[in-house]
Amino acid sequence: MAVKKSELYSSLWASCDALRGGMDASQYKDYILTLLFVKYVSDKFKGVAYGDIEVPEGGSFDDMLALIGNKNIGEEMDKIIAKLAEANNLRGVIDNAHFNDEDKLGKGKEMVDKLSELLGIFRDLMPDFSRHRADGDDIIGDAYEYLMRNFATESGKSKGQFYTPAEVSRILAKVVGIEHAKAGDTTLYDPACGSGSLLIRAAEAAPVDVAIYGQEKEGTTAGLARMNLVLHNRATAEIKGGYSTFSDPQFKNPNDDGALRQFDFVVANPPFSDKNWTHGLKEYGRFDGYGDRPPQKNGDFAWLLHIIKSLKRNGKAAVILPHGVLFRGNAELAIRQSLIDMGLIKGIIGLPANLFYGTGIPACVIVIDKENAEERDGIFMIDASRDFIKEGNKNRLRERDVYKITTVFNQRIELPNYSRFVPYDKIKNQNAYNLNIARYLDSGASEDLQNIDGHLNGGIPSVDVESLSLYWDAFPNLKSALFKPLRDGFYSLAVNKDDIRDTIYSDSDFSAYANKVENAFESWKKKVDGKLRTVDGTTKPKLLIAEIAEQILVEYEPITLVDKYDAYEVLLSYWNEVMSDDVYLLVQEGYKAVRDIEVFTRTSTKKKKDGTEETKITETGWDGKLVPKELVIEMFYSSEQKAIDDAEAIIATAQAELDEMVENAEEGSVINDVLTDKGKLNKTLLKVQLEKIRSSIVTDEIEALLALQNSSLPKKKEVEAVVRANPLYKNAVTDSGTITTASIKNRIAEIRATADVPEPHADDYAVLMSLQEKQTLIDEQSALLKELKSALDKKARDQYAKLTNDEVIELLLERKWYRSIVGGVYALYEAVSHRIAERVTELADRYGRTMPELETDTSELENKVKSHLERMGYVW
After folding, report:
1. Residue partners of 119: CB distance under 8 A and separation at least 6
2. Tens digits of per-residue pLDDT, 97-129?
3. Three-class DSSP category at 536
4. Contact status, residue 368 vs residue 316, Cβ threshold 8 Å
């Protein structure tokens, strides 16, 4: 079976539950990631000669599985990991998590149960990674990144420093220029590599193989980086752990001249404002020639200068630093002045605040480029600080934000209030080498000014109405439909405030605009349809989404009121949530996977009398592997689904009526006598109450039958004479010609079922019968509903295997992919009306009442309050 991203992710995160409680995320990440590494390399390389990783005898995941239930499981797992580490020079890398640690994993049986459960999860829920064939799309490595992100989130501010958000990593990879690297000995370096995500993203962006080098002070975190790189098929990377970059840099020139080694590209997210950077410092000429030394208590420029020293003559770097480096004075001003005068800074990108797990302060990306530095005449700046989405207690860059930043930077596109090329004259002479982005790019958030004349005399200022000119240009008749002139410089509403939204929707130009949005989507669909219909084993999913995403930007470029980057976000969000899983499956299994279903089961264990355990697997449900069964039902069994919907509607209506009767029952109502302690209808009590009322029904026939019942019943040969003597007995005679106690009771019940109840009980009986009728209808329809659902479920399940090739494409592309994407894009069009309506309503509310009117109302209210207080005896 193919590796499905979302299921792999959820399985990995579920495995963390087995360890929660004894340690926090910063600790149990080592256990989960170590097991992921062992499982992956065992699947991928066990028995493979000359693989990237050697899996020795007794050092595989299979050897771990054999330990489930073993009383020495923790100790033995450590031995297996030690063998794997020893065979691959990974001591101190993959053996940092000790599975025999009683403080973290418990003692005795607790440890055995916990580790056995953990191994069972990896065995039962993890796929066979050896079957993963989507070359270039590292699902396993991405799963590692997924775990790292979640661990960083749970670890909190103090312990999340090992991870740079993937979105930020991708920005650095795109702007550093490595995508233009040519074949040769291209080198990539990160002096504070953490878990290695920056190195991986940058290497992925390169069109050629690159040699990867990284240094990380924390030995455990360096181990994470090594594992991360192996999982991303980059096992040859050199990661040095446990050494400070300033006191003991690990990469020096191969010719042993003592100088720092230099690289083609550097990406880095060093510790912000590092106060300990001078501890054991060795110079290596890193700070010479910049007018001053970095401050002892702030290492931001120390890191930047180390990176510059580590670059080749035409080297390039992208570094994440706090905003303060752009404007702080004293020694940092002198260094910044030198960097600008040397032309080393190619660009600056301002990022939103609260992106990183180690700090909430805003950061920026400094792009360094030594190539042609002496000819540089300015710096390209981007202010992306306002583009993000709130996610939990952190901010996150969206796909649209990443694309916009990287495209604008690399193509040097100047956008109002977002990006511009700033010449040196403005930086040096007009701003004294201050690089604070706000000095060069307006925030774009114009102040919403209040108009005194409008407040005093009424009317909506024309300047506010004209500020919506973007919409009036697109919909020429809408302005006059919403506003009418009031006096010079002011408008009033031309419609009732409650009719604003309807007026917008009824505008012919606005309605026609929907066609433009739809036509752009249809044009995009036409351009990409061929690619999506022919996904196969040669398809590279990441290249595919890049191509179709570029196309959606092209199609929505001319749609002025729908931001093309928002359309891009709709597509990329759907890709990340759903479509990528589908494409990965198609790559590995082909479109025949649409005909496959997934059966969900529950495993339960029952102990037998002889002490052995019996395992039972129960099916709990099913669904299509690629196409949900709802879409198959919609396409083939709409009439059956309508019957189900109708039954559900009948049940819902009857239940609502029954609930209303129960909820509105007054105190003393007979309804209260047939309810449970939780206020729900009790069918047994209802039956008892109805029987109780019916037992009060007495007719001549009932009296005669009761008298007969209490006397000696006639023998069979006596029945005819007894009935002639008393005809009221005749309906109690059985088919065999006898009268029995049972036949008398049945006849009395028949009479009471149809006879009118006595007047004192009539109202209560009617209420109870109404409850019973509704409950009976609910029960009957529920039984019918169960039958209908069961029959439809079987039909739908059987239909998958019968799907034709055309039906497969129709279901997957048209009904699943395209419908979801166009729904998101159409929501952007609807948002246009919301923005217009909200602004017009806001202006109407703001100037709807004049100041004199408000003062009059206030005075009247004050007088009323004063009058009330005086009547209460308060006088002043």
Report:
1. 35, 64, 65, 67, 68
2. 899 999 888 889 989 988 998 898 888 777 777
3. coil
4. yes
